[in-house]
Amino acid sequence: MKAFLGMGLLGSNFVQAMLRRGEFVHVWNRTASKAQALEKAGARAFTQVQDAVRGATEIHLTLKDDTAVDEVLMAAEPALHPGAIIIDHTTTSKEGAIKRTRVWKEKGFTFQHAPVFMGPANALDGTGFMLLSGDEKIISDLTPSLEKMTGKLLYFGAEVGKAAAMKLAGNAFLVCLTAGLKDTLTLSKALGVSLEDLLTLFGSWNPGALVTARLQRMTGADHSQPSWELNMARKDTQLFIDATQQSGDQLLLMPAIAALMDEWINKGFGGHDWTIIGK
């Protein structure tokens, strides 16, 4: 029997998928009504976390942060089945994942951090990505169960906490991507470019396909053979800023990027590839 703690959009859809596979699941949430809503799908809801985990050999969590994970597990501890496996899908700090892995092992339990790149629809359909690192034997034992929950398991080696680090790195990219798109929309508005025009452009020219090559270029040793000179990239960046200011709007990221470009130009790298600013 499994227990699932945290019935947000992700957790509740994970549970619904488990129920569809014929698994028996206890559920709990701080707001009891969210757990109780899953009873009509076949889950058994509890208002006390100890009651939810009692008898469960596999406990999953999708909570807010390190503090929430620690508080909920502390509350659940007196009723945990001896040797139970705790699988935490919460996005947490690397340090928190490392500490919990050690602390719960000392208490006689297996703690495995397994953050995900999955939205609610992925959780329901068993698609997306689940990240793992740590003891290879533990992960091998958990693989049959976890594979049912996701489209692909990504194993990042034996280093405890590496999965947490990878999730944070990936989320950082998503945050920057969204902020960059905000600047793109603001500039487009200033220039009279419609959303439909942007979608047409990106539907044919997919800059996302350049990420791997761009990372390799940025982290390479030689930027002296430019495909786009830093001086020219800086000129274009100023065009972005000027056009937006003329319309009465402000860009979010571009002024900071322009300042970074100026630093590298002042160091004498204006004729180098512009990706040198990533050094």
Explain what this protein looks like in three dimensions.
This protein is of the alpha/beta class. The chain is 51% helix and 12% strand. It contains twelve helices and nine strands. The strands form two sheets. Strands 3-2-1-4-5-6 form a six-stranded parallel beta sheet. Strands 7-8-9 form a three-stranded mixed beta sheet, with helices on both faces. Strand 8, helix 7 and strand 9 form a beta-alpha-beta unit. The longest helix is centred in the middle third of the chain and has 30 residues. The radius of gyration is 24 Å and the shape is elongated. The N and C termini lie far apart (50 Å).
Structural topology:
Layout: E1 2-5, H1 9-20, E2 25-28, H2 32-36, E3 44-46, H3 49-53, E4 58-61, H4 66-76, E5 85-88, H5 94-106, E6 110-113, E7 116-117, H6 120-125, E8 129-132, H7 136-147, E9 152-155, H8 162-191, H9 195-204, H10 211-218, H11 230-246, H12 254-266
Parallel strand pairs: 1-2, 1-4, 2-3, 4-5, 5-6, 8-9
Antiparallel strand pairs: 7-8
Helix pairs in contact: 8-11, 11-12
Give a nutshell description of this structure.
This protein has helices at 9-20, 32-36, 49-53, 66-76, 94-106, 120-125, 136-147, 162-191, 195-204, 211-218, 230-246, 254-266, and strands at 2-5, 25-28, 44-46, 58-61, 85-88, 110-113, 116-117, 129-132, 152-155. By secondary structure, the chain is an alpha/beta fold.
Secondary structure: number of strands: 9
The portion of residues forming beta strands comes to 5-15%
List the quaternary state of the chains.
single chain
Percent helix, as a range, is 40-55%
Order of helices and strands: EHEHEHEHEHEEHEHEHHHHH
**Average pLDDT, all residues:** 97
End-to-end Cα distance: 50 Å
Major sheet size, sense and barrel closure: 6 strands, parallel
Quickly give the structural class. Answer: alpha/beta
The unreliable regions are: none
Radius of gyration: 24 Å
Trace the largest sheet across and list its strands. 3-2-1-4-5-6
What is the molecular shape?
elongated
Number of helices, where a helix is a run of at least 4 consecutive DSSP H or I residues: 12
